[in-house]
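Form 7-S
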Amino acid sequence: MKRLIKYASGVLFVSVLVTACASPPPRPVPLAQKLLERGYVIGKPVKRLKNYRINGWNSIDRYHVIIHAGVKEDFLVTVRNPCDGFRSAEILTFSTTVSDLTDKDKLVVRGAGGFVEQCYIKSIHVLSRTKKPARHH
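Output:
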């Protein structure tokens, strides 16, 4: 009897495991929707962002970060390759060859434990605020 129970529980475990693996992965959320949920719409591209105005940031995903500049200006920075450190970064700085942040520069992400990741910028876009953030359903 004990052997039968052990066998049945093993079959049940394998069945649950196979079922979990068989379910499709969640569909990725489009960037426009992620921005809308945060109260933004993407605007025109810009070539440079004055570095003296940068006063904060928020990660969106592995490829996108919002840079806050000045009093009410926000910019979407897209990087060329996945930047896994965006979500857990303690410090976000940038390396530039000129005095402003451009699409030729890189973001430097410093995480817990001193982990450093360099993320090369692909583009910078102005973000416009919507009246209020979209509700997540």
